[in-house]
Each structure stands twice: as C-alpha cells, then as structure tokens.
C-alpha cells in the first residue's frame, strides 16, 4: 500500500563544515539533486548556525530543491540569553525545520524532557517544524526497554502540544547505540519503535494525526543499508549524520526515499 506521507531525508551536518565549506557542499548537493528527478522525496539539510546564511543565499538565489533547518533553538524567544539562538531568528533566515531532543543535546548539554518540551513549543511559536528525536541507549536496549523509553520521551516532549501542532511534527527514532558507531538497527528494530511511536500518537491524539506524521530512522544510515529500513511501513525517511557530509552518498540515500514513495 502506498503511503500518503512524503518521505523526508534530512542531513544533520552536526559541528562540521564552516560557512565557506557549506557553500561548496550545498552547490555539489544541488547539482547532484537537480541532475536527477527528485519530486517524491523532501530533502533537507541541517547545518550549523553559522552556515545558515550561506545555505539560504544559495537556496533562494538558485531556487534549489532543498529546504534547510537548524540543529537546535532556544526555548526562549529573545532577551538576555547569551549564546542562544531564538526560533524567531531561525524563521527569519528561512528555516523550515529544527531538531529538538537530539541525543547529543540530551547527553552533552543535559537537556531533559522538560527542556525538549519547551523547545518543541518554541519551535511552534515561530512556525518551525520540530524534528523531535527519541531513542534509547545501549543499556536500555539490552534490557528490552527501547519501546517504553522512546514512548516516554515522546510523551514528555509533547506535553501541552495540541493535535493541530502535533499533526505537523516530524519524529526521528535514533537508537543512541547506532549513532556514529557503524552499528545500524535492523529494519525490524526500526519498525518496532517507529510503529510504537505511531500507535502512541493515535492514543495521544487520533488516528488521523498518527497516520500523517512522518517518522524517520537515524543511526549510521548509508546508501547500502537504507533500502531495508525504508521498506518498513512506519519509517518515512532518515536523519543522516556522517553520510550527509558526502554529497554523492547523501544523494544516493535520498534516491531511496524517492523510490520508496
Ligand atoms: O542526526 C543524525 C544522527 O545522529 C545519526 O548520525 P550518524 O548517521 O552519523 O550515525
């Protein structure tokens, strides 16, 4: 059965590529994407904050077929918060998406569910689409707690988020043990948690919201392992870290989004 959800392939550059490197990278990516016919997959890049202006200039000037977003935002809307970047600033520079709750933010910056929830709400206040990341660490996986853990993170992040807003969210299931390690979850592993997240959305909201939300898989995605993951009924794309730094490889991965739709 074909899915009504348009696949999304999002490249999270993490703390890589300065603003000059971002220009060269985006140009290579744009050339490779426009060279093929990518109509049925949405392609996004999530550069560091300092690259956003470079990416915006290329996307707007050359009418590129990619959208872009940020890797984080402040839970506050403005004022004396040194070092923070507000949702309003991201919206003004043309961001579509913003990550919330990435495991590296949870781990290295101690962002808990309350902070993630505040950031999700901040994103909505500025018409940004949150890509909410959830996923378990190795200990939880070994104990078989991956579904309960990921669903609890979803519940925490969606507190006080109404159905209309939740309908536009993007979820990303990223098992922490598979991020940057070369260990990729099996397609069944990905489906188990992505399916549970969709079921939870139906409980929290309704079947229509659940059916419309895109759920990505992330964790050591490459062009040689994406096909099986994209074949799963509740997986609608990927959040790609390391492999998104190679434009050719990233475009190959995006092609699987196109094929799966
Ligand atoms: O945001 C992306 C994920 O953390 C996955 O990163 P990775 O593809 O390098 O494992």
UniProtKB/TrEMBL annotation:
Its main location: cytoplasm. The keyword ATP-binding does not apply. Keywords: Cytoplasm, Gluconeogenesis, Glycolysis, Isomerase. It catalyses: D-glyceraldehyde 3-phosphate = dihydroxyacetone phosphate. Involved in the gluconeogenesis. Catalyzes stereospecifically the conversion of dihydroxyacetone phosphate (DHAP) to D-glyceraldehyde-3-phosphate (G3P). The keyword Isomerase applies. NCBIfam families: tim (TIGR00419). It holds the Pfam family TIM. This is Triosephosphate isomerase. The gene is tpiA. SUPFAM superfamilies: Triosephosphate isomerase (TIM) (SSF51351). Substrate binds at residues 12-14, 180, 220, 241-242. Its EC number is 5.3.1.1. Homodimer. Pathway: Carbohydrate degradation; glycolysis; D-glyceraldehyde 3-phosphate from glycerone phosphate: step 1/1; Carbohydrate biosynthesis; gluconeogenesis. The active site is at residues 102, 174. It is found in: Cytoplasm. GO terms for molecular function: triose-phosphate isomerase activity. It is an enzyme of class 5 (isomerase).
């Amino acid at each position: 059965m074909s899915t009504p959800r348009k696949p999304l392939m999002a490249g999270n550059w993490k703390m890589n590529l300065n603003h000059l490197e971002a220009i060269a990278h985006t140009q290579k990516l744009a050339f490779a994407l426009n060279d093929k016919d990518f109509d049925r997959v949405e392609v996004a890049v999530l550069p560091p904050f300092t690259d956003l202006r470079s990416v915006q200039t290329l996307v707007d000037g050359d009418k590129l077929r990619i959208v872009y977003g940020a890797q984080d935002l402040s839970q506050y809307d403005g004022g004396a918060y040194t070092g923070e970047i507000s949702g309003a600033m991201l919206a003004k520079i043309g961001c579509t998406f913003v990550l919330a709750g990435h495991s590296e933010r949870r781990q290295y910056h101690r962002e808990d569910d309350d902070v993630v929830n505040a950031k999700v709400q901040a994103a909505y206040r500025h018409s940004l689409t949150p890509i909410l990341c959830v996923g378990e660490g190795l200990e939880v996986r070994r104990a078989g707690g991956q579904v309960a853990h990921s669903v609890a993170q979803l519940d925490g992040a969606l507190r006080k988020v109404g159905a209309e807003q939740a309908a536009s969210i993007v979820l990303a299931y990223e098992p922490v043990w598979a991020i940057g390690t070369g260990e990729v979850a099996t397609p069944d592993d990905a489906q188990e948690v992505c399916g549970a997240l969709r079921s939870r959305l139906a409980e929290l909201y309704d079947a229509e919201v659940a059916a419309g939300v895109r759920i990505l898989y992330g964790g050591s995605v490459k062009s040689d392992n994406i096909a099986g993951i994209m074949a799963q009924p509740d997986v609608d794309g990927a959040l790609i870290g390391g492999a998104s730094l190679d434009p050719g490889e990233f475009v190959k991965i995006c092609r699987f989004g196109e094929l799966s739709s």
